[in-house]
Amino acid sequence: MEASFEITQQMVIAVFAGITAQVLAAYLKLPSIVLLLVFGILLGSDAIGLLHPHLLGTGLEVIVALATAIILFEGGLNLDLRELGKVSVSLQLLVTLGTLITLLGGSMAAHWLGEFPWNIAFLYASIIVVTGPTVVGPLLKQINVDRQVATLLEGEGVLIDPVGAILAFVVLDTILNSNADPIDAIIGLLLRLGVGAAIGAAGGYLMSLIFKRADVLSLELKNLVVLAVLWSLFTLAQMIRSESGVMTTVIAGAVFANSSVPEERLLRRFKGQLTILSVSVLFILLAADLSIASVLALGWGSLFTVLVLMFIVRPINILCCTWNSDLNWRQKLFLSWVAPRGIVSASVASLFAIALTQRGVNGGEAIKALVFLTILMTVFCQGLTAGMIAKWLQITSKEATGLVVVGCNPLSLLIARFFQERGEAVVMIDTDPECFAQAEAQNLRLIASSALDTAVLEEAGLASMGTFLAMTNNGEVNFVLAQRAAEEFNPPRVLAVFPRDPQASTSAENKVDQAFVQDLGIKTWNEYLNSGRVKLGTTTLDEEEFSSQQNRIQEKIRTGDLIPLLVERENRLQIIPAAIDWQAGDRIIYLLHDPRSNLLKRLSGASQSTPLSLEKLPEVEQVPVAKLAELSVSDSPSA
Known about the structure:
It is a single chain. The protein is of the alpha/beta class. It has 2 domains: 60-393, Up-down Bundle (Na+/H+ antiporter like fold), CATH 1.20.1530.20; 403-598, Rossmann fold (3-Layer(aba) Sandwich). The chain is 60% helix and 8% strand. The strands form 2 sheets. It has a 6-stranded parallel beta sheet with strand order 3-2-1-4-5-6. Strands 9-8-10-7-11 form a 5-stranded mixed beta sheet. Helix 9 (147-176) packs across helix 10 (182-213).
């Protein structure tokens, strides 16, 4: 009873510490793995001494195996084959040629600098070829890097995990069986990959069938059935061919995710929660089991080994694997810097240390210490600086340009023309085929289909666009469309026209901003545009007159005479959200209601067919500003 209670204590401490680290990381906006490693080391026997993972015995290996299966399955769920297709050549090279470059470069560095024997050096290099999705995924979400780079890093992290893990076990098997033939080792690697892929594909298809056709099962029960099937597939693959289970879990997740399964989003949420728990517990336990003395005993040579891996081997890897891609030098430089090692490296190193010690082979603890040193250096150096470097290189998703607009009407056409004049890609979506004529008259691309279809948003290229705007005449539909766009594609800016207070109806989760002003009467303003009863104006907020200018604008917004459309800030044109925080230097483009009748306007020389011109209007701005070039916008046809 006493022994079982000790194990219970160990698990409770690990779970509590892991979740606490996750909470603090979210609050401090730090990569969670940083605090998980710190907490694990502090709680281990070399510090406070609360955690002693060796008390779990073989149970630690069971926890590592089952938790790794969940982590890799969740990684497979996040693989979008359509996105991967855009970087398929580079990704294939990273998983094949890149693995070979890291294996050779890492082993040479470990042998010549770390003074490890060649067999142990190769074993170390085979363990650290992987870049864990459990580190890369949260890191990319935090820094919001551009879609192409994010897809390549996520795809590499997920696909290289099973390849690297199986490669490491093949190298270990070769070391433990000194008479092993290299050809047999290669065949064993390919067999493990093939068996794992075949079982994973069949299992992923089976899971999708369960979700699609087992209507008698509740959603909660379906999620648990998928978990049971996943662990069964993992065990089956391990029985048929040892260490093929890691490949099985990734392929099963990828097949399931790309099978158009209803309610898949809810399964992702469930598996995401299990992954957070698994990662938290594993990192705490494995870090607590690390001997600081063994890391310090490695010496300067091992430190230089990791530095060579980070600053020489990784850049060569990226240069060779992306030389013929359309990535620019900024993207390649970021890819060269971000390659943190994660839970798969840590778990494999821990298992190998046990296996080598049991077989009487020296170097097990040294390999584990060097792998953890690699994890610590890559996570702390790259994880803590990735956001800053992405901003410096200007490859964050916030830098993305382009506009997808749902709803083709005079007001949306006017906004689309502004973005088009700035050289940004613009795509409009509307179910009314008659909108083609209006869009074509202004050389705008329009897709005549429903934006509720994810494939239509994919066709519009929303994955690489900077802004999504829903502004049909139905505010409820606009809000639903914007929520779906945010969840499926996560563009940097998601806005919609809907008749609700944005602070009351939106939250940090849906990332939807109310466009322009609260309770915009979009039909009214479209009528104004059709009848020519508007002026298109601009004003620049001056620092000295900032307060008075803002008050004048807000007063006209309250009276319904003005709607702010766009703001130019730091040379970037953006759609104005209703809850915008104005800043000095903002250049605002707006529509001002001109109530004069058409007859009076004709008598005064105005014409409805005259294009709207961008001008400084004295009704709003009373302070001098530099003369602005006119931007002509073609009239929309009258209703």
